[in-house]
Design a protein that fits this description.
Elements lengths: L10 E8 L5 H6 L4 H13 L5 E5 L3 E8 L3 H9 L5 H7 L1 E4 L1 H11 L11 H16 L4 H20 L9 H12 L8 E4 L3 H14 L4 E4 L3 H11 L2 E2 L5 H7 L2 E4 L19 E5 L16 E5 H4 L5 H8 L1 H49 L5 H25 L4 H11 L9
Parallel strand pairs: 5-6, 5-8, 6-7, 8-9, 9-10
Antiparallel strand pairs: 1-3, 1-4, 2-3
Helix pairs in contact: 5-7, 6-7, 7-14, 8-9, 14-15, 14-16
Length: 419
């Protein structure tokens, strides 16, 4: 990427791990909360990285960034998580330059999601870009790329069947309940955690189970009350968690904490209890599974649930891939223009200097010289010349470097400084 005049970093990389090779436990080791992401971005800026974006979801943790070598980014990730380089190397992937760009398109448009058609990642990409911008590590390349991915995602949602129905982890949890309980409307359901996944799960529970026995608990009670208010549900204090678990038939955990929030000593069940853990890292301690009458299902299992709508979505993949290819081609065309942007800018500056010198010369020679008309005429000629050069460079990518060298030589332009 060093020829594109977009970053001091030599190459553009994606480094990360996802559900495809890393199980929930390993993904938990590399999970980043909001503080972790902020600290990572600040360190990146302090180390001179001028373009970096980081996402951490239940299905993946990824860093997109410019660097001399991918280890710079791997080191950043390991320093701000509980993961090690050795763990990372066993399950990770590294993409470079155009392959890294292609990967972001696939991720951001839902084609690489654990549940096909889950578009929640696009809002997380938007947030990641905003956070990078706040930290001062979002260059124009990232702004253009993220916007291109957003537009491709919108087209796929509007023009294909790949997003028909609901295919998020939150919906999969509700689907599991519907398939495993004869009377889901009669079960006492406790939802612990009202972040984004918790809110989506709550909405799907109300919509699909017709259940009026749903209780919400969150460490910050007012957040739970805001969600409950929309659906007329019960809210309990965090201090009541153990008592509410004892009454529950189904416990859904979506707290997003970095350590287990549901441990063995919290559960004294007097009846069978199903626990659905929608969190990364796991928020239900492994020892809970040892308790009699308790079943623990993690999101990795939920994500394997398929139905007829998923088959319909799979049929839409070729159309989605075509949309991605068009968006990617358009982005790469813009990227190619970055190669010659400094030369074009220098040429325009040189032509304007030549025009100003000639106008000044003619002003001294010609009486009643019309400065305004001369400026208009000179600027129009310069613009036409610039358009000719730009069109030539855009249309002849095979010899762009030779053309740039010739322009610089003929017009005696200063060599563009590499960032």
């Amino acid at each position: 990427m060093e020829d594109y005049n977009i970053s001091r970093g030599k190459h553009f990389y994606t480094i990360g791990l996802s559900y495809k090779k890393a199980d929930a436990e390993i993904r938990g080791h590399f999970s980043l909360d909001e503080t972790g992401k902020k600290n990572l971005l600040e360190q990146a800026r302090n180390e001179g990285i001028d373009g970096l974006l980081v996402t951490s979801t239940c299905n993946r943790t990824e860093i997109y960034g410019f660097a001399q070598h991918p280890f710079q980014l791997i080191k950043l990730l390991c320093e701000h998580t509980h993961g090690t380089v050795e763990e990372f190397e066993k399950v990770a992937y590294v993409y470079k330059n155009k392959d890294a760009i292609s990967h972001m398109f696939r991720v951001g448009t839902g084609l690489d999601s654990q549940i096909l058609g889950d578009f929640e990642i696009i809002s997380q990409l938007k947030l990641a870009f905003y956070q990078s911008k706040e930290a001062g590590v979002a260059n124009p390349f990232f702004e253009r790329l993220v916007n291109a991915v957003i537009q491709a995602s919108k087209r796929i949602k509007n023009e294909t069947e790949i997003s028909s129905g609901a295919t998020s982890v939150s919906f999969a949890s509700v689907q599991y309940i519907l398939r495993n309980f004869q009377n889901p409307a009669d079960q006492n359901i406790l939802l612990f955690g009202t972040g984004k996944i918790g809110r989506n799960t709550c909405e799907n529970l109300v919509k699909h189970t017709r259940n009026n026995h749903i209780t919400l608990i969150n460490r910050t009670k007012d957040k739970a009350e805001k969600v409950a208010g929309k659906f007329n549900l019960t809210v309990k204090d965090y201090a009541d968690l153990q008592a509410e678990i004892r009454q529950a038939d189904i416990l859904i955990v979506a707290t997003g904490a970095q350590h287990p929030t549901i441990t063995k000593d919290l559960i004294y069940n007097k009846k069978d209890l199903l626990i659905l853990d929608l969190s990364i890292p796991k928020n239900v301690s492994n020892e809970v599974q040892e308790l009699p009458g308790v079943s623990v299902i993690h999101l990795d299992h939920l994500s394997q649930i398929t139905d007829e709508t998923l088959e319909r979505r799979k049929a839409a993949i070729p159309h989605a891939q075509k949309i991605i290819a068009e968006a990617e081609t358009e982005f790469n065309s813009w990227l190619e223009t970055r190669k010659f942007a400094p030369t074009i800018k220098a040429l325009k500056k040189k032509l304007r200097a030549m025009k100003d010198a000639e106008v000044d010369f003619q002003r001294k020679k010609i009486s009643d010289f019309n400065d305004q008309q001369a400026e208009i005429l000179g600027d129009r000629i310069i613009q036409k010349i610039m358009n000719q050069f730009a069109n030539h460079l855009k249309g002849d990518s095979n010899s762009t470097d030779e053309s740039l060298e010739l322009i610089q030589k003929v017009f005696q332009l200063e060599q563009p400084v590499k960032r």
